[in-house]
Design goal:
binds magnesium ion, alpha/beta, 309 residues, elongated, binds guanosine-5'-diphosphate, eight-stranded mixed beta sheet
């Protein structure tokens, strides 16, 4: 079974400490001062929300709603504000029904995409460990054939997690590796194939075409695959991550997001913006460099992490 919920909350809380310090600290100062909700108060609230990368649209919605409620006498003091904010953000963050969309039968194939340095390879390793620990037989396809060092690194992680990895020589055909991994998984009845891919900028046509080829070739073996295409986004890039998500969502058929490096940023609110603007669920968050530092996205744990409960 997956790790207990209490531990999950603790990890998420640690990982979101910078966002919490930024938004929680500023909110505490605003609210604790017993101020009334006037123009200046709203300006400071706006600044706080934008700094945590809640996004312009959501921030404006919150401010407008707050003014309406204030006039209606529903929000008068700081405590009301906090409850209102939490409810408003919670409404944006419906949790995915299940961690991964599973194949009806045979192996589930998950394609991991994103720009260089976002955390794809690390995420593949963490996912492999997580699902292996939960009792699933996992096969990794090392399809970033551009970086031999990265393949070696992934091989070490795969070994540690106790899962098999299919690879080719440096510069080999990525699609062929994906095909072989699917074939291997089918042959031995494995439950999950994780496909690591090269970092591709959406401007680089050939890389996007390679991704399409991987998809086509996988489908020759498993017609319903890939069952998930997870876009890995570096949360520290804030609004730039939102931009990347928009391009990839169109070009690569993304079905969900992994938001990495939340531990290194006060921009945890990007999760809310992306969810709102693209309608794509955040499936996992990365909260550190260790193998256990990947958590399924839990809206309640996430908000508790931001608001410090
Ligand atoms: N602090 C932190 N670092 C991370 C996280 N995920 C990945 N990294 C680091 O980001 C760097 C790039 O990761 P990598 O998986 O190689 O990115 P890729 O190019 O997309 O495959 C590495 O140094 C990772 O350790 C995370 O959740 N938190
Ligand atoms: Mg990589």
């Amino acid at each position: 079974m997956f790790k207990a919920l209490g531990r999950l909350f603790e990890k998420v809380k640690q990982g979101l400490s910078k966002t919490r310090q930024a938004i929680g600290g500023a909110l505490a100062r605003l609210i604790g001062a017993g101020r009334k909700i006037d123009r200046q108060f709203l300006d400071e609230l706006e600044e706080t929300l934008l700094q945590a990368d809640i996004g312009v649209a959501k921030t404006e919605e919150i401010l407008a709603e707050l003014q309406t409620r204030y006039k209606a006498g529903e929000v008068a003091k700081g405590e009301d504000l906090l409850a209102f904010l939490k409810a408003s953000l919670r409404a944006e963050l419906a949790a995915p029904a299940e961690e991964l969309n599973r194949a009806a039968s045979g192996p589930t194939v998950v394609l991991i995409v994103g720009v260089n340095g976002a955390g794809k390879t690390t995420t593949v390793a963490k996912l492999a460990k997580r699902h292996k620990d939960a009792g699933t037989d996992v096969v990794i396809a090392a399809c970033d054939t551009y970086r031999a060092a990265a393949i070696d690194q992934l091989a070490v992680w795969a070994g540690r997690a106790g899962v098999d990895m299919v690879r080719t020589k440096d510069g080999g055909d990525a699609a062929a590796v994906a095909f072989d991994a699917c074939a291997a998984a089918e042959a031995r009845g494995a439950g999950l194939v994780l496909v690591d891919t090269a970092g591709r900028l959406h401007t680089k046509d050939h890389l996007m075409r390679e991704l399409e080829k991987i998809r086509r070739v996988i489908q020759k073996r498993i017609p319903a695959a890939p069952h998930e295409v997870l876009l890995v986004l570096d949360a520290t890039t804030g609004q730039n991550a939102v931009q990347q998500a928009k391009v990839f969502a169109q070009a690569a058929g993304v079905t969900g997001l992994v938001l990495t490096k939340l531990d290194g940023t006060a921009k945890g609110g990007a999760a809310i913006t992306i969810r709102r603007e693209l309608g794509l669920p955040v499936k996992y968050i990365g909260v550190g460099e260790g193998m256990d530092d990947l958590q399924p996205f839990d809206p309640d744990a996430f908000l508790a992490g931001i608001f410090g409960e």
